Amino acid sequence: MKLWQQKYQLNKQIEAFTVGNDYLLDQKLVKYDCLGSIAHVKMLNKIGILDKTESDKLTMALYEIIKLDGNKAFIIKQEDEDCHTAIENFLIKKLGDCGKKIHTARSRNDQVLTALRLFYKDEIKCITELMDNLIKTLVAIKQKYGSVEIPGYTHMQKAMPSSVGLWAEAFAESMNDNKLLLLDIFKLVDQSPLGTGAGYGLPIEVDRETIAECLGFSKIQKNPIYVQNSRGKFESTILHGLSQIMFDLNKMASDLLLFSIPELGYFQLPTEFCTGSSIMPHKKNPDVLEIIRAKYHQIVAFEFEIKNNIANLISGYNRDIQLTKKPVICGFEVTKNTIQIMIKVLAQLKVNKIKCKNAMTKELYATDKVYKIIKKGVPFREAYKEISQEYETT
Q1: What are phi and psi of 154, to 5 degrees?
Q2: Which listed residue (147, 277, 315, 388) is catalytic?
Q3: Is 277 a catalytic residue?
Q4: For the segment 47-63, what is each residue's pLDDT rounded down to a tens digit?
Q5: Domains annotated on the chain, with CATH
């Protein structure tokens, strides 16, 4: 039975359309909704809605669902609409009237937000750990090949001497900045929405502090209208943070694609990381890097999908917001998978020291020559002019 079920039956075609794929996406949220419900039960016991026996029964049943979910044995059906309905139906079937009490002092609106934010917090932590591993891999490249010189490019032309170490360090430093951004986003979502109802508060006094403490939230999101208005806003902010990580992976992949072409050959990918051609038997294609490069655009598309979805909505909950769930869940999956693949690529990356050395042609040192003359007291512009004549072409 649906949480809003009344005497009439919803048209099946309308049901399928409005439910969409929420019942599938929500398999990722079962544990988090149960944890939110366990904290809610504790609060209901504290304010006298549930007695200790009821509280204990509900808590045990919710942990049972978590265990079932961990064993892939708690399945949400389309007619359930979402995990929240499936969980409450389980509790009612198992505990009768006791199960019917659990929805006291909450709406599905703040219940959904609570489960999502607990999920977001875990996902952000996971991505932060993956970023740490990526940084370690880049540092290992610097330690192994750091002194190997390669050309530095501006305007896609040779410019000045660079090195493998300088290249790897650039991305490691940028990833550290991305971590700072992600940690700030973590602080943003680390606010408890539970206890605000459908966006306009509740006609009963609840202990929101107890709920926030039980769930490990650092603070309470106070204004009930803002709680609903922040859905979609927070999700797009998460995706923006993920896009910064993916932007760096995109650029890294582009560099590796360029530097590994046979004409340059500074870097080499393992053969087992490359695909072949159906017509050209000699080909070893770096498809993995091309797909990494493309994944950035997926994340940006997800971000703007959400922003476009929530624009022009009036304050409060609107069902349009349901469509913000998939982009952010997919965004986490794409980002985690892409970081893992890039770590694997970098860990096996080889540097061809001979080709790097051969690429260090004399024009790369033109600016060095200018500054050697400057040290003799010659004005910069005169020194620049003198050296530039060496590289004039007819």
Answers
A1: -130, 145
A2: 277
A3: yes
A4: 999 999 999 999 999 99
A5: 12-100 (1.10.275.10), 112-358 (1.20.200.10), 363-391 (no CATH)
